[in-house]
Specification:
- Helix content is about 85%, strand content about 0%.
- The chain has 17 helices and no strands.
- The model has no long low-confidence stretch (mean pLDDT about 85).
Length: about 400
Amino acid sequence: MKKRSLISLLKNREYILLQIGIFISRSGTFMQDVAVNWQLYQLTKSPLSLGILGLAKFIPVLIFSMISGMAADVFNRKKIIFLVQIFSIFNALALAILTITGRITPLLIYILVGMEAGLYSFETPSRQSMLPNLVGKEDFPLAVNINNILFNSTNFIGPAISGFIIAISGVQTVYLINAFSFLAVLIALILMKPLTKNFEKQPSFNFRGIKEGIDFVFKTPLIYGSMFIDFVATFFASATTLMPIFAVDILKVGPKELGFLYAAPSIGAIIAGIIFPFMNKFKSKGKLLILSVCFYGLNIILFSISRNFYLSLIFIGLSGAGDMISAVIRNVIRQMNTSDDLRGRMTAVNMVFYTGGPQLGETEAGLAASFMGTPLSVAFGGMATILATIYIAVKTPELFNYRDRI
């Protein structure tokens, strides 16, 4: 780890403000994700209903992704993020009010979750594209790693707290906490100074601009290869939506333990994120990417066959470690090999892949679990991830042979 880069980031006021705001907001969001899954399963007792939830999250992203990516390249990224937080507050409040009044239904959950996914599709390209404007090129790889550590910290803290709150006072309290958490980003954005984009020319908001972004991605093997890797891993090995079934029916535990199951991948990811900067001597980052995704798939298989709660925590935690290493490498590859005027659109295409993977994967997992049982469907997904990753490595040598110090 470069000490100078770490000190530089810690002195970067705008970067720190944004990360604090996002940390608080994301913790609330992950709390809500657990609450929604728990509430939906309690209402339906159906694995398929949890799978449909993934579809409800993905469809808005598919519809709005390229428009939002174009918007991130054309309009003020801070203002886009600001507006998204305001609408997200009302969305979370709606979930809370409907639950408190007893009017919540699976259909209303799907609608509100879909609306939040649409808002997320506008926030993500602006937020991710803004990072290179906040930090220097030398600091960027470390900033990506820190971002991933913080992200996974929220993915650990949010679910763990959510499980306890659900057990004590119900899902409606979780929804209210999430609504207030969005205020942290609003405050951070107000306190931040204006940011400038590093554009050679200002892109126009039109169909040609959208096509330009798509063409760039699919004409650059290094970029699209990393996106396909992301998709296959999260599509085939997505066990998140089935966690309530593993907790209740297989491991015979309650909402508190469910919170820990959701949090375990993030604990593994945080540990991997701390270790990763010391792995710079391993220059073949493409090979490390492939190995880390295969390691992820292997631990998903082991998780599926475990019937012991503590072993399950270990295996799902190790899967998070593998995912973390691959995520940092993929993100640096994409951002450092894309010009600033294309970053929003590149991120939007990537969002379809990394959002579509887990969300469609949740639907696939729900359907597969309905036909072949939950453990077998997850084991199949882990094996498919390993095989698909090896196939992509063979077909995309630019990615497999990628070398860099990040």
